[in-house]
Amino acid sequence: ATATRALISAAIPNADLVNAETISIWTTLQTHVRVLLNHLSPDHPDTLITRHDLAGWTGQAGDPAGAQNLFAELLLIQERVLGPEHPETLTTRHNQAYFTGEAGNPAGARDMLDELLPIRERVLGTDHPDTLTTRQELARWTGRAGDPAGARDLFAELLPIRERVLGADHPRTLLTRHEMAHWTGQAGDPAVARDLFAELLPIQDGILGTDHPDTLLTRHNLAYRTGDAGDPAGARDLLAELLPIRERVLGTDHPNTLNTRHNLAHWTGQAGDPASARDMLTELLPTRERVLGTDHPSTLNTRRRLAYWTERIGRPDDEEDA
């Protein structure tokens, strides 16, 4: 097992860095790791750690259902070998919940994390980083399970704890602030969400840098909520400023760059220029088809909005859709 973990470490020195290169390496390695695991003592601590790595990288490589199943199998072994409240067992429970959500069951993830949280609070302490991570994920999956107001409230409760434990400028604290703003908007209060994003942005500029992906995401969401709060021209202008930065930092084909292009077209149309919205979406559609596939939800959304703005050209502004 130690040799197996050394193989993984040599191939992927920074296992916390998830990008196309590390995922490609792991996809090549995982078959060999599975074979090696069949010849190792199943209860050895290094074997359990390697199985945990296998499950995590399976999920990161795009198979959340496979990761969920691997974590479920590992959990039974860890509960027997290490005990149900061992920190590594609790980490496996957390990750099983996460990939349950990523595999398409957000309500299941929420319920699993809701059961795990009081155990982590009792075993690790309420301020332990792993406990706070479980609180963060519980809030997120609560929102994704259809309760944005509940998610907003959970993030609002978590934020002062993050600020006290980690500091107001810690990246995880900033992430919690971002999530609170996001779910505030999702809960139906775009003006407050806009203001929260506007307060967060200069902090991220100073701490993370103006080109950091998290900073750019906040700029994108600030623009969207600006439009959602009743200022489509303001949203259009913010997105027009953001687009060339995302193209330079992330690349022209990155999904987030394509999202900015889509929303720029949307708010351009909402600001009174349906012809330009149509033209932007006409240019975007073949890119989304090539990058994401013709049946991807984002591609289908662009196709629908293209039809919408094409149909809106020449119609009076006050004419309502049937």
Oligomer category: single chain
The radius of gyration computed from the alpha-carbon positions, rounded to a whole number of angstroms, is 22 Å
Question: Strand percentage, roughly?
Answer: under 5%
Task: Quote the average pLDDT.
Answer: 89
The shape is globular
Describe it:
- The chain has 322 residues and is mainly alpha-helical.
- Helix content is 78%, strand content 0%.
- It is built from 15 helices and no strands.
- The protein has helices at 2-11, 20-37, 45-60, 64-81, 87-102, 106-124, 129-144, 148-165, 171-186, 190-207, 213-228, 232-249, 255-270, 274-292, 297-312.
- The longest helix is centred in the middle third of the chain and has 19 residues, at 106-124.
- It is globular.
- The termini are far apart.
Brief descriptors of the model:
single chain, 322 residues, mainly alpha, 15 helices, 0% strand, disordered C terminus
How would you summarize the topology of this molecule?
Elements (H helix, E strand, L loop, with lengths): L1 H10 L8 H18 L7 H16 L3 H18 L5 H16 L3 H19 L4 H16 L3 H18 L5 H16 L3 H18 L5 H16 L3 H18 L5 H16 L3 H19 L4 H16 L10
Helix pairs in contact: 2-3, 3-4, 4-5, 5-6, 5-7, 6-7, 7-8, 8-9, 9-10, 9-11, 10-11, 11-12, 11-13, 12-13, 13-14, 13-15, 14-15
